[in-house]
Amino acid sequence: MSEATDFLALLGQSADPGVVEAIERLVADEPDYRLCRINPLAFAARNGLDEEASIAAFLHGSRIGMFDIAWNVLCPGCGGVLETNASLKTLQKEAYACSLCADSYAPTLDEMVDVTFTVSPRLRRIAAHNPDGLPLAEYYRQMYWGSGVDLPEEGYDAIVNDFIIDHVELAPGEKAVLSIQLPAEFIVVFEPVSHSAQFIDVRGEPTRERQTLSMIYDRDHVHNQKMEMRPGPLRIAVENRSDARALPSVCIAGGTLHDLLGRRRPFLTAKRLLSNQTFRDLYRTDTLAVEQRLKITSLTFLFTDLRGSTELYERVGDLVAFDLVRAHFQVLNEIVAAEAGAVVKTIGDAVMATFPTPERAIAAALRMREAMRDLNRKHGREDLLLKIGLHEGPCIAVSMNERQDYFGQTVNIASRVQGLANSQSIFATGAVVDDLQTATLLRQKALTPQSHDVSLRGIERELRVYEIP
Fold this sequence. Notes:
CATH architecture of the largest domain: 2-Layer Sandwich
Radius of gyration: 27 Å
CATH class of the largest domain: Alpha Beta
Strand content: 25-35%
Distance between the termini: 57 Å
Number of helices: 15
CATH superfamily of the largest domain: Nucleotide cyclase, GGDEF domain
Helix content: 25-40%
Number of domains: 3
Largest sheet: 8 strands, mixed
């Protein structure tokens, strides 16, 4: 058997069969660029597959060596990859600058970190395994832009040629001269390897006199200045003093480029992956460094607790109570995973879980409540009385006690809201209930939340919470 066959057989033991078949076709038949920085959400959409099953398959594939996982820091403006990390642990900067957009961004895990998968050379060697050999257009497609930019399949080269006037490839130490005719456009001399940009605002009366510009590429020069020139001949002297290939290209920052950058599609964010149960199971302690504090602007927390669990042990005995509590944990874990969430930890008989969006958390809460009712009916007693609380907001992802955890006021509020709940009730804050998709879900289920203004321990302001009947 070939190594590819062995890999696929091993993947088939833990991943959805339909996804495994699609991955087999991908590896065997697709062009190289589709195997570099694979966007699992786009892969699922293209093959008519479930997103969560596709994410799980690529995670399992990465764990067994089929794919290399990458955490790419993206520019929110142009969608370019500002830094690529093999592990989230190496994402350490307080800010990332994009010279093309002439702006700097504090990293968040919501929309700035794109998680992708590239096929391993052991499975199939592709051109991107040697990025220095990629032509300019393919370097932009496979290495510069993140997987959230929806680059066209047909006519891609023609579009790139439409906004790039001229370019040159420079090996380390090489020099070259570009002689171009400047159009009356806004021009960017962009170098995608070092992310250097020189802006030229071309305006005024055309000139026949040759204008000149010198550019040096090294580790210390990041060009992002702006100058004015007149339409007419321009001589650009470029020198590569870096230890890597340079690809200076003269681009028209006009409609063609802006339209291309405006084409966006969903991608797998670090936030979503950290709230994925398969990821947490496979990468338990290999996620964050102890000293890291990574921001998430929006995450939904769900806390549960069993009411009267002490009395339960007294009433039915330790063995029966233990079996009931264990069955309750199993059901909750399955529901959390099914709704694209992850269990962060259990504390006694309580569960703390996270979800990427409020409506998935509410859907999980409703399923949990019904599941406890089913378990109680099965045993003929109201033994499992589940209290549930939810809140959404910003937080910080941290590493505590050798596991990925979360810290911040959002977590505190979610925990306090759960403390308001009584048996079989769900309490959620306005941040959860007011979400449009949550409101749609509750309307579909004919559920009308009842509002209460409450004071929570440790929270100065009064908070409006909603009881979901």
